[in-house]
Design goal:
Chain B: It holds the Pfam family ARPC4. The structure holds two protein chains of two kinds. Chain A is of the alpha+beta class. Chain A has a domain at 1-138: Yope Regulator, Chain: A (2-Layer Sandwich). Chain A has eleven helices and twelve strands. In chain B, strands 1-2-3-4 form a four-stranded antiparallel beta sheet. Classes of the chains: A alpha+beta, B alpha+beta.
Chain lengths: 369, 169
């Protein structure tokens, strides 16, 4: 589930390779990841202890975050990522929003280096989460006075936007669900019904209440038609103050950002599970048929067991008969072939060399065992 | 529901027992060809009356017989959309691998979910009563498998939903 993990697996792998290389390595990689993220990693052989990591991400909410630059809050959070190892470079690489200077010598040499590199690889989740937190905190007071809470459209994945509506004291997150195939829609609908059922249990009262509806909820009235036309319905989560307290804010924000990816992953794995199960069942069903055939062969063998004067069993397998019959048919067909061009001596050649083997033995029966 | 299953299967078994009297019969229209007459339906004198056995509105079995072949078409019960897609997927999966079953038809008859085609050659290779047992057992296994698949899918969904909501606690 690479799209749901905080650490970018590709970035993690490249940084680990760079860190553990025995000789100075030159790296100049461009990476494109889920959610339209762009990375550029540069490490030169003349300066092996330093690597430059440039990041570019489209704004989470194009309507609100009009500037391409990252906010001060986001920059502050990035600075807190492994201070000492990660520094923000003064000159940003062209085409990117942020360039980080990674001092590889300051990464601890022992077991902790994996943890540090993984933390560096979570830079994109830090940027996204901070953007969503800012959107939720920057509440338009004019709208609150008028009682209008306009839905905010967020596009973590451009093809799967979702909406956040702030209605104090809660925040409603609405996910329009769309799938290309009908079977995916049905599997996801079954999943949403289970999600609503589990959410209503006493054990999960602390989790945000969720609901599913086939029609757009009233909070989304007035939104664009293309945003409201779905085949999988709408899933809504009611986020209260309890879910955004302290450390829970980060988890809640990340779960909301990746809900669509989570659902798609579940549908994909369910289809794989169904396929595996069908294959296993096919083997069982075919085994029954083959078992039936082998029982029949055994019965025919025991049926012919009898005459004491014969050595061994007289076997007249039905498969043997069919094989003999088919060879006979083929032989007759070959003999009936009329060639347009008559070749002298071919008839004798055919009789001598194109004979089919006879299956009957000189003894008149086939001994088994 | 279970009370109607046994009589339904017994009826199918008895009908197949009576219908599976097949013999070799070369094609009357094309020389040296031997075709299952139940598929061609070109000579009405070679076809017997088809028998339709209905358990209820959604489950039925059509048995069409001819002199040298027999076609059995089954419609499996589908209570909701999830069972519908599971049945379609599973039976399509089996039909695409029809050569493993020998008597299975690659494409079901229109209006049905799965079809078998039994010819006189199959009756020569295999025993008639075993073949009937296989078909009846197949019907039971399909029903059981669809129910288990549906339950597994719902159980998986529940587990995944539980894990998702646990992250908020």
């Amino acid at each position: 589930m690479a799209c749901i993990e905080r650490a970018s697996p590709a970035l993690n792998q490249i940084l680990l390779k760079l860190y553990s290389a025995e000789k100075p390595v030159e790296i100049d990689h461009h990476l494109y990841e889920f959610g339209s993220f762009k990375y550029h990693i540069l490490c030169q052989a003349c300066e092996p202890q330093v690597a430059y990591l440039s990041i570019s991400t489209p704004p989470l909410c194009p309507g609100i975050l009009t500037s391409n630059k990252l906010s001060s809050y986001t920059i502050e959070l990035i600075k807190r990522l492994c201070p000492g190892v990660v520094e923000i470079a003064e000159a940003t690489r062209e085409g990117y929003q942020l360039t980080l200077r990674l001092n590889l010598t300051k990464i601890p040499r022992r077991n902790d280096y994996v943890k540090v590199i993984k933390e560096i690889s979570t830079v994109h989740s830090v940027i996204l989460s901070s953007q969503l937190k800012e959107i939720l905190w920057n509440f338009n007071s004019d709208d609150a006075i008028k009682g209008m809470h306009k839905p905010i459209k967020l596009a973590y994945n451009p093809r799967e936007p979702f909406f956040v509506i702030r209605q104090p004291p809660r925040i409603i997150a609405v996910f329009p669900i769309r799938f290309a195939e009908k079977s995916d829609v049905i599997i996801s609908t079954a999943f949403f019904q289970e999600l609503v059922d589990v959410g209503s249990l006493d054990k999960y009262t602390k989790a945000p209440p969720c609901s599913w509806s086939a029609i757009p909820p009233p909070e989304l009235r007035g939104e664009a038609f293309e945003d409201l036309s779905t085949n999988g319905g709408f899933v809504s989560f009611d986020i209260s103050a309890h879910h955004v307290d302290g450390k829970r804010l980060d988890k809640t924000v990340w779960n909301l950002l990746n809900f669509n990816a989570y659902v798609r992953f579940h549908v994909k794995t369910t289809k794989g599970f169904i396929q595996r199960r069908m294959r296993k069942r096919l083997e069982n069903l075919v085994e029954v048929l083959h078992h039936t055939e082998s029982e029949q062969d055994n019965e025919q063998i025991t049926r012919h067991h009898g005459c004491s004067c014969t050595k061994g069993l007289l076997v007249k397998s039905s498969k043997y008969n069919i094989l003999k019959q088919r060879w006979g048919n083929l032989g007759r067909k070959l003999k009936r072939i009329h060639f347009r061009v008559k070749i002298q001596g071919f008839g004798r050649f055919r009789q001598r060399w194109l004979r089919l083997p006879k299956f009957s033995s000189s003894r008149g029966y086939t001994k088994l065992g | 529901m279970a009370s109607t299953l046994r009589p339904y299967l017994t009826c199918i078994r008895n009908t197949l027992d009576a219908a599976m009297c097949l013999q070799n019969f070369p094609c009357q229209e094309v020389e040296r060809h031997n075709k299952p007459e139940v598929e061609l339906k070109s000579s009405p004198e070679l076809l017997l009356n088809p028998v339709l056995i209905c358990r209820n509105e959604s489950e039925k079995c059509l048995i069409e017989t001819s002199i040298n072949s027999l076609r059995i078409s089954l419609k499996v019960k589908q209570a909701d959309e999830l069972e519908n897609i599971l049945t379609k997927k599973f039976l399509r999966f089996l039909s695409m691998r029809a050569e493993a079953f020998q008597v299975l038809r690659r494409k079901p008859v229109q209006g049905y979910d799965i079809s078998f085609l039994i010819t006189n050659y199959h009756c020569e290779e295999m025993q008639k009563h075993k073949l009937i047992d296989f078909i009846v057992q197949f019907m039971e296994d399909i029903d059981k498998e669809i129910s288990e698949l549906k339950m597994s899918v719902n159980t998986r969904g529940r587990l995944v939903a539980t894990e998702f909501l646990k992250q908020f606690i």
